[in-house]
Structure to design on (401 residues):
């Protein structure tokens, strides 16, 4: 009897163990029952397997994790993009009833089938680059029926494709038209009705809020929603300090959030509080670029605090119509000055941490055997190209996907 179901040879590995890339040149990986059973230098491989895959000198990373997407939505916001090119700001458009609310109108009108059909090509684009786990947020329904529909669509994407999907209820994303001028009342509805109902149906793995003093929810309102999440046994995340310093980073830390996302304007104190709380900082360079933000996240403060940093697409129709996680590597390095190791850890081990998933993101025995294989000469090449996809294959739970 062989000890392993399958081994991968002729590969260089970025294991992501330790603080850096955890490189093993001329390495091997063995899997058993969908889990990694052994990782190391090929010369040390202890035994054979039923199936041997030769990787042709590819670099193998843990399956990529896109830990922040709004991939389920109807319509698009190209008209709004044109308005912004003519001088309107993201915030002005939102205040005038466009922005997120225009996607809410389209999404409320769409059937579950239509939402799946719209999301699938976007999902395919991510998977083609080596993504094996994605997070999907609701937040374009803003009523129970549509929020639940979006989350059902997200679950269906996970069931239909070789990808793991983590769902997040973002019902507190914007104030719907029927609650115009009554933001606090809507936050109460989210906390008292929407979160408990979504949790009872098992539709969400986490809860998120867009906290912002001008177009989002206040700290108090955020706390009501987070308290509902706590009662439902769900971890929390926060869209924080995207457009100004609202104290979002510290708020996320106070609530023990899995992650605080965007954080362009987060100050050093909030960043240090996040690091102490174990809250991951999710950087979203696609949104920074697309809304032509100029205030960069304080990466130096994040490094000084020892904050775990992740990178994600924020794939959404308004602020980041980005279908490429590899492009985010390049943008994270060029726009935010991340190192190659920071960027690559940001879409593997730290992205998994942002989802509270301790079973992936690293190549180590006992973890899920999710792999992404790339035809590159060195890991830096993954961050270097703009618009090249060197992914030669994905493995999900030990199976070719
Ligand atoms: O992550 N900031 C709020 N939410 C999204 C944008 C959603 C939209 O504009 O449709 C974001 O940037
Ligand atoms: Fe987002």
């Amino acid at each position: 009897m062989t000890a392993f179901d399958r081994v991968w040879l002729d590969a260089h590995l970025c294991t992501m163990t330790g603080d850096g890339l955890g490189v093993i040149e001329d390495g091997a990986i063995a899997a058993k029952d969908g889990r990694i059973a052994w990782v190391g230098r090929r010369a040390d491989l202890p035994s054979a397997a039923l199936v041997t895959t030769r990787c042709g000198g590819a670099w193998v990373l843990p399956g990529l994790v896109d830990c922040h997407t709004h991939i389920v939505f109807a319509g698009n916001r190209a008209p709004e993009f044109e308005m912004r090119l003519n001088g309107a700001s993201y915030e002005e458009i939102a205040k005038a009833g466009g922005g997120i609310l225009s996607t809410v109108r389209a999404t409320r009108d769409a059937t579950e089938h239509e939402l799946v059909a719209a999301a699938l090509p976007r999902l395919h684009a991510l998977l083609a680059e080596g993504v094996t786990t994605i997070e999907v947020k609701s937040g374009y329904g803003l009523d129970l029926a549509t929020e639940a529909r979006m989350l059902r669509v997200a679950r269906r994407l996970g069931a239909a494709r070789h990808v793991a999907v983590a769902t997040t209820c973002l019902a507190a994303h914007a104030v719907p038209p029927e609650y115009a001028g009554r933001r606090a009342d809507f936050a109460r509805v989210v906390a008292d009705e929407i979160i408990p109902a979504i949790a009872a149906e098992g539709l969400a793995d986490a809860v998120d809020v867009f906290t912002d003093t001008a177009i989002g929810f206040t700290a108090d309102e955020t706390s009501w929603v987070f308290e509902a999440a706590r009662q439902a046994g769900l971890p929390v995340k926060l869209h924080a300090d995207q457009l100004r310093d609202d104290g979002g980073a510290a708020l996320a830390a106070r609530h023990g959030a899995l992650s605080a996302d965007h954080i362009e304007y987060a100050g050093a104190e909030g960043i240090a509080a996040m690091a102490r709380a174990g809250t991951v900082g999710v950087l979203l360079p696609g949104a920074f670029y697309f809304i032509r933000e100029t205030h960069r996240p304080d990466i130096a403060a994040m490094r000084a605090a020892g904050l775990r940093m992740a990178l994600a697409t924020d794939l959404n129709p308004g602020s980041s119509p980005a279908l490429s996680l590899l492009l985010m590597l390049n943008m994270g390095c060029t726009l935010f000055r991340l190192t190659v190791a920071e960027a690559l850890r940001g879409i593997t081990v730290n992205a998994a941490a942002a989802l509270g998933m301790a079973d992936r993101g690293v190549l180590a025995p006992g973890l899920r055997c999710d792999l992404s294989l790339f035809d590159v000469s060195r890991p830096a090449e993954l961050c270097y190209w703009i618009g090249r996809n060197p992914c030669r294959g994905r493995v999900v739970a030990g199976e070719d996907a």
Observations:
- Residues 183-200 form the longest helix (18 residues).
- The pocket of fe (iii) ion (ligand 2) is lined by residues 68, 70, 239, 314, 316 (CB under 6 Å).
- The CA atoms of residues 250 and 288 lie 21 Å apart.
